[in-house]
Amino acid sequence: MVEIIIVIQPKKLAATKAKLIEVGFPAYTCQRAKGRGRKPRTYRLPDGSFGRTNLVNKRILNVMVPDSACDLVVQALLDANCTGTAGDGKIFICPVEKTYKVRTGTGEEG
Q: 11 or 85: which carries more pLDDT confidence?
């Protein structure tokens, strides 16, 4: 089993959820986050001037999938989030050794 962690733009959350449902993995955890990539972000203010910020709003999703489904889910996440511009996000794949159900205390090998 693997954990897929994806950092995305907030406006892409609905499309990402729809893609996860489409490929059969509707369960995920979502968090609000602020962060930045390599460069500060420049944005336009209502008066026409420009500003810079070091932190931008993001969403972080954690999805647990079997090893065999990892490529399918990653491709779905890329399809939902890739616009070809800086700030589209990042995907991390982490191995999961073991999981436990809190209610029953039973464990499963990853």
A: 11
AA identity, residue 76: A
φ, ψ of residue 99 to 5 degrees: the values are: -125, 155
Residues with Cβ within 8 Å of 21's Cβ and at least 6 positions away in sequence, in order, are: none
- Give the SS3 label for residue 19: helix
Residue 10 Cα distances to 38, 49, 68, 97, 110, angstroms: 19, 24, 28, 30, 30
For residue 69, give both structure tokens: 């489904």
Q: Chain centroid to CA 5: how far?
A: 5
Is 0.90 surpassed by the pTM of this model?
no
Name residue 2's beta-bridge partners: 65, 95
